[in-house]
Amino acid sequence: MSLISACCTRPPIKMEYTPKGETITLENGLKCYVTGKKGSKAAVIHLYDIFALRPNSYHAADIFADAGFRVIMPDLLRDHPIKVEMLGDRQKIIKRLSTVGTYPYLRSDLILVKEYLNGEGFNKIFLSGYCWGAKLAMALSAEDSSYLGGALFHPSLLEEDDFKNSQAPMIIQPSMEDPDFTEWYKELLAKPFGPYCYLQVYDDMLHGYAAGRGEWYIPHIKERADEAFNNAIRGFNRILAIKA
Q: Any idea where the Dienelactone hydrolase domain is (predicted)?
């Protein structure tokens, strides 16, 4: 498991935000933030970054909800988020994610999350992932072909096989600090859904610009984050247009 330096050193920012949705508890005790109308055109499983339930996490979920999606954000790390006092200790962070943050460990939770959306009547479901959450989004797409697409913001931990095994178009928006995915991205372009994939590098943004580390009180950073969200929403709507 490999993380860029920013994942292990830079703390989340402090911001105020009042979520628009509600928190529910699934049958296994997993708490989830749910936002958006039950009659929305499609749903999004929103996979937060390593800092878990931060103000920007809720805000990002609400952005998708305001664009017409039903959004569920599972608290997958439960009582084990990466805490500020752990920053600087790379091995401790990697150990935490290697135990409670792997796809095999979280698979049953994610199945329940999807079943919850199915129970609300949603069979058109997208994925959005931030940092570590982007890795989970790719893993879900590799295993389950029913997901319509994914939006990956400053993704971490991705490997070439994630691109080879993806079964849905991906909208990938790394920061200047993230790996260069250009070559691996060609694996997506070669697939039948290649025209619905998108890659944009935010070479003026730091890792975390669309999640827990995003200083959205700075106008330029908020503008760039909004651009990334708009790209994702536009991409999802393009996919929905052919799935109608």
A: 31-239
Nearest to 94 by CA among 137, 156, 140: 156
| Mean pLDDT of all residues belonging to the chain | 95
- Give 237's contacts (C-beta < 8 A, 6+ positions apart): none
Cα–Cα dist 29/109, whole Å: 10
Going by pLDDT thresholds of 50, 70 and 90, the confidence category of residue 88 is confident
pLDDT tens figures, 112-126: 999 999 999 999 999
Instruction: Kindly list the structural domains of the chain, giving each domain's residue range(s) and its CATH number in brackets, ordered by start.
Output: 5-243 (3.40.50.1820)
Look up the pTM and report it: 0.96
Cα–Cα dist 137/142, whole Å: 9
Confidence of residue 58 (pLDDT cuts 50, 70, 90): very high
Q: Interior CA angle at 38 toward 36 and 41, to 5°?
A: 80
CA–CA gap between residue 50 and residue 105 (Å, rounded): 15
Alpha helices in the chain (DSSP H): 5-9, 55-66, 90-100, 103-119, 132-143, 160-165, 182-189, 219-243
